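Margin note: ligand = acetyl coenzyme *A.
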Amino acid sequence: MGSKIVGSGSYVPDKCVTNKDLERIVDTSDEWIVRRTGIRERHLLEADEDPSKMGIAAARAACADAEASPGVIDLFVVATNFPDMICPGSSPFIASGLGLDQVPFFDLKAGCSGFVYGLAVADGLIRAGMYRHILLLGSEALSRVTDWSDRKTCVLFGDGAGAVLLEAGKQDEGVLGSAIFGDNDKAMLLHMPAGGTKEPASDSTLESGGHFLKMEGAGVYRSAVPMMESATRSALAAASLDLADVDWIIPHQANIRIIDSLGVRLGVERDKIITNLDRVANTSTASIPIALDEARKDGRIKSGDVVVMTAFGAGVTYGAVVVRF
Ligand code: ACO
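Resulting structure:
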C-alpha cells in the first residue's frame, strides 16, 4: 500500500501588493527586496476577509482536479501556524465550509515545514491502512501576524492556501520516501512571543507588539540551506533514488538566495527548481502546494515525474518528501 496525490488546488487573495506599494509603508525599496529576496509582489487578505475562504477554495479545487466529491474524504489535515482561532484552530471552520460531515480533522503546526510534515504523516496513515482519502491543506494568513512597521519581516510574507488529495494506491506510486527532522535549539529563531499560554494576551503584550511574528533572519538563512539539502538527500535515500532520478525540486518559497544556494549544494540545474516567490512571496505552509499546483496545471510536472518537496521553518523543523506523479 502507498499513497498517491490525485488532485491539487490553490488560492491566493485578489489583493496584490507590490514592492512599490511597500515603499509607501516602510523604509525599503523594490531594488533591496528583489536583490535580497527575489520577491516582487504578494497577495494579501483584505481586513474584512475570512482567512478560511482561502483554504476552502484551495481544497475545493483539489477535489475538482481529482474529480472526487468531498464525500470521499475520510481525514482532513490543515497545516497552519496561525489558525483562525488558537482554539479550535482552522480545520473545523474549513471542514464546515467544505461540507465535510463527521469527517475527523486536525490542525498540524510544524512551522513552514507543515505541508511536508503533513505529507509524511498522511502517507504513514494511509500505509497503515487507517484512511483511504486524506485531504491535506496548507493555509496561512501571515498578513494577520505581520508587523507592518517592521521592514525586516513585512516585505517577506504573503497569504495563500494550497491543497492535495491523497488516495491509497500501490507501493511504487505516489509518495516514495520522506524524511522529517527537528532542531529545538533553534526554537527562538522564529516565534510569536505572546498570545499563547506562556504569555497570554494583555495590554502590555499588545503594547510590546508581542502578537507579531519575530524572526532572526540571518540565523534562519544560515540554517535553511544545509537543512533542506540534508533532508532532500535523506528522503531520496528512503526512496532508494538519487538526484539524477529527480525531475523537479519544489523548495519552500522563502528567499531566492536560499533556493539558489540549495540548488548549487545539490548540484541540480536551476531550471529543475520550481519557484513562484516573485509573485506570491513566502506563504509558509501554503508555499509548496501553491507552487506544486501551478506546475501541475501549466504542464511542467507530468505523469511519471519524480518531484522532491523540501522545507524548513519555525521550530525549527525541516524535511523532504519524494513523490512520483
Ligand atoms: N529594506 C531595506 N533595508 C532593509 C530591509 C528592507 N526591507 N530589511 C532589512 N534591511 C536592512 C537592515 O536594517 C540592515 O541594515 P544595516 O546594515 O544598516 O543594519 C541591512 O538591510 C542588512 O540586513 P540583513 O538582515 O543583514 O539582510 P540580509 O541580507 O540577511 O537579508 C533577509 C534579510 C532577507 C530577511 C534574509 O536574512 C533572509 O531571507 N533570511 C531568511 C528568512 C526566511 O527564510 N524566513 C522564512 C522563514 S519564516 C516563515 O517561513 C514563516
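DSSP finds eleven helices and 13 strands in the chain.
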